[in-house]
Write a structure and sequence with these properties.
The chain is α/β, with parallel strands linked by helices and 320 residues long. It is built from 13 helices and eleven strands. The longest helix has 22 residues.
């Protein structure tokens, strides 16, 4: 009888648990973006939000908490209730680079956050203000080698791929550039457009500025040239083996129930498969929808954690 009552209690509890999560969501969902408005993660998050809201039947609100390579937004979400109502829309550098670069983060992104779904992949664009006397990447290399003092470059912040991409370029090309970090890619691009810095390594969302002549694209960081700018070379064409790509995804606080994560993943993947979403992603640059399984997502995080750990050690980047 005791065993029967115990089993009945467990079954009752599980039934209530399942019923509660079957009703998810019951209120609006907040998606915390790691960068300022205007950059690739912000734009793609706002493309997905209304579709998710329609599918889930509740508002999906996008909020920006930029700074410290996503650490501010990441810690905020990690300390939120693990109920699926506060999600992180972040980039890979928070998980693959920051743990190697920052002496103190305030939280462990690999333990305190759980992956929900991947969203996009992209590459970076290295650009110059039109007033800088370089027409292409080859002329940039010559210019940088002769410049005294060395010119400045803007990035999305310390420890980002934007930062490491230029540091790796400096090492491979034997040039010197002075790093000027910004809170995210959009402010960095705006600084270059305004002429505050001559060069910028920015995300593919800076593509429209290149098209408008406000920036001059010199090179891209991916394995292949961008379809948007077929005449702009990859850095790897000059320095074989050079490649920096980035990806975005959505995370929840550790402890979030698996049925909730599964529901979110299902709806995110549905949105990513829509032709209109792909078209809108590509319109802001080289952003491509990227759908993975949970196992694939976790494997990519581990792979890039090891990859960037070696690169950080090789370059010697450290932030106290």
């Amino acid at each position: 009888m005791r065993l029967f009552l115990t089993l009945a209690g467990v079954i009752s509890t599980l039934s209530l648990y399942g019923a509660a999560h079957a009703e998810f969501p019951e209120r609006p969902i907040r998606v915390i973006v790691v960068i300022a408005p205007g950059g690739g993660p912000d734009i793609t998050a706002r493309v997905l939000a209304p579709i998710l809201a329609e599918r889930l039947g509740k508002p999906v609100v996008v909020e920006n908490k930029p700074g410290s390579n996503g650490n501010i937004a990441g810690e905020y979400v990690a300390r939120s209730a693990p109920d699926g109502y506060t999600l992180l829309y972040g980039h890979d550098s928070l998980f693959a680079i920051s743990p190697h670069v920052y002496a103190r983060m305030g939280f462990d992104p690999l333990k305190d956050l759980v992956p929900v779904a991947t969203t996009t992949t992209a590459q970076l664009i290295f650009s110059a203000h039109p007033s800088v006397p370089v027409k292409d990447f080859r002329e940039f290399l010559s210019y940088a080698r002769q410049a005294n003092p060395p010119p400045n470059y803007a990035s999305a912040g310390n420890g980002t791929q934007h930062h490491l991409a230029v540091e790796m370029l400096k090492q491979r090309a034997g040039i010197n550039l002075v790093h000027i970090p910004y809170k995210s890619g959009s402010p960095a691009a705006q600084a270059a457009i305004a002429g505050e810095v001559p060069f910028v390594m920015s995300g593919s969302s800076s593509g429209p500025f290149v098209k408008a002549g406000k920036l001059r694209a010199l090179a891209v960081t991916g394995r292949k040239r961008m379809p948007l700018f077929p005449d702009v070379p990859t850095i790897g064409e000059f320095f074989p083996g050079y490649e920096i790509t980035l990806w975005l995804g959505i995370w929840a606080p550790a402890g979030t129930a698996q049925p909730v994560i599964a529901r979110l993943r299902e709806e995110i993947n549905y949105a990513l498969a829509l032709p209109d979403v792909k078209q809108r992603f590509q319109s802001v640059g080289d952003n491509e929808p990227w759908i993975t399984t949970p196992a694939e997502f976790e494997a990519v995080i581990r792979r890039d954690y090891e990859k960037y750990g070696k690169l950080v050690k090789q370059i010697g980047v450290r932030i106290d």
